[in-house]
Amino acid sequence: MMVWLIYICAIVVFREGTQISVTAIEDKLPNAWRFTLNIAQKVVCIVFFLMVGYLGIKIMPFASFQKSPNMQIPMKYMYMLFPIASWLIVLQLIANLIRDFGRDHD
User: Which of 63, 85, 83, 82 shows the shortest CA–CA distance to 74?
Assistant: First the structure.
């Protein structure tokens, strides 16, 4: 359940754009390059989370026979988290990309 909570929080973090990041290089770049770097970062994240979602679907049939040791919940419900949360994060990132392209980039 803790993993579910972490992924739900990650969806909110990606929506708000408040994830932790190191901006030492980004701060030294001109605005045009910052915009390009920002777009590249989001595209890489989109590809990563699409892969996590796809692999989450691929692993679910193997988990359908397992139950969690303590709560006796089928593990397929636990593994269902990966495609659902990953695709929600992808939707948030796409919305952020659309929002970024709508802004002024001096």
Answer: 63
Count how many domains the chain has: 1
Model pTM score: 0.81
Under 8 Å between Cβ of 86 and 12: no
Phi, psi of 74 (to 5 degrees): -55, 135
What residues are paired with 67 via a beta bridge?
74
Distance CA 44, CA 65 (A): 34
Judged by DSSP in three states, 19 sits in coil
Domain containing 6: what range? 2-11+30-101
Residue 69 in tokens: 């040791």
Q: Are 16 and 95 in contact (CB under 8 A)?
A: no
- In tens, the pLDDT along 69-105 reads 888 888 888 888 889 999 999 999 999 999 888 876 6
